[in-house]
Amino acid sequence: MRGEKGLTLTGQLGDVMKESAQAALAYVRSKSKELGIEEDFFEKNDIHIHCQRGPSQRTGFSWVTMFVALTSLLTNKPVRSDVAMTGEITFAGLGPSCGGD
Q1: Theoretical Cys-Cys bridge with 11: which of 17, 43, 48, 51, CB 3.0 to 4.6 Å?
Q2: 29, exposed or middle or buried, with CB in 10 Å at 0-12, 13-18, 19+?
Q3: Chain segment 7-57, per-residue pLDDT in tens
Q4: 76: alpha, beta or left, given left = phi > 0 and alpha = psi -120 to 50?
Q5: Per-residue burial over 40-76, b = 16 or more CB atoms within 10 Å of its CB, e = otherwise
Q6: Closest CA to 42 of 55, 52, 32
Q7: What does the longest C-alpha to C-alpha distance in the chain come to?
Q8: pLDDT at 100
């Protein structure tokens, strides 16, 4: 919607879900040029994410899922219906650490 870089989060969201949404939007913004999103889109628009019912703590949404949903919306490219997502990656695109270095 028209606005000024705002992010509105509504629904039954815990702190982790709110952080996931913020991280997803930040990553979309950082990759907007590569994704073909208008350069000034975020300067002129707000994003509103509503989650009707939050997931259980054990199976919470991944920020990656929100990233894909936002990217799909903003590029007008649908996500394949036979794709499922879970887990997390780092901002560098790496899987979670299993210990060690």
Answers
A1: 51
A2: middle
A3: 888 887 778 788 888 988 999 999 999 999 988 899 999 999 887 765 555
A4: left
A5: eebeeeebebebeeeeeeeebbbbbbbbbbbbeebee
A6: 32
A7: 46
A8: 37
Q: What value, to the nearest 5°, has the Cα angle with vertex 96 and ends 92 and 100?
A: 105
The pair phi, psi for residue 10, each rounded to 5°, is -130, 165
Identify the band that residue 75 occupies on the pLDDT scale cut at 50, 70 and 90.
Answer: very high
- Percentages of the chain per state (helix, strand, coil), in multiples of 5: 35, 10, 50
Determine the Cα–Cα distance for residues 55 and 6; give it in Å rounded to an integer. Answer: 24
CA distances from 4 to 1, 28, 31, 57, 95 (A): 9, 16, 19, 32, 33
